[in-house]
Amino acid sequence: MRSGRRMENYSGRGPAVPDRVREWFGPHTTSAADWPLDALLLAKGPVTVSVVLPARDEQETVGEIVSIIRRDLVDAVPLVDEIVVVDSRSTDATAAVAAAAGARVVHQDAVLPGLPPLSGKGEALWKGLAASTGDLVVFADADLRNFGAHFISGLLGPLLTDPRVQFVKGAYERPLKGPGASCSAARAGA
What we know:
Elements: H1 3-11, H2 19-28, E1 29-31, H3 37-44, E2 49-55, H4 62-75, E3 82-87, H5 94-101, E4 104-107, H6 121-131, E5 136-139, H7 150-161, E6 165-172, E7 183-189
Parallel strand pairs: 2-3, 2-5, 3-4
Antiparallel strand pairs: 1-7, 6-7
């Protein structure tokens, strides 16, 4: 989704969005559709990419997400080099489902075990960063329904094509019920 529409959505939910914010979002917001996989593969060069999925009790969704990434971004187009699922003390079969789908599973408490264990998604994220090997790391939620490979490629686009970009954050519409989710990415340069 383009920034103009997204900003209109935000302006109806709270305080007015200042013009300078609107102006920044315009050239700094893209859509996953802006990044064809063949172009990203050319831009990738020798860079390695890890996708990290923090997961706690996500056996219902993590397998499909890993399978889609593996099929579309590892096997079909070698854009992603590593898929890491950080099992965050799941009590269900999250780790087994993720491993069966082709992810390397690490258990949150086994990463940097000399540090005291903490709780929460933040710990799973930074432990995933520590466990990954890629030059670029993309984080995605393991509980997404209607996941598509474009969620990952949309985040990678600005990182692979603009050396000034060091951080990209996805913006998704996540309906409580209903079909699909859309994705756009806002990026911050150096």
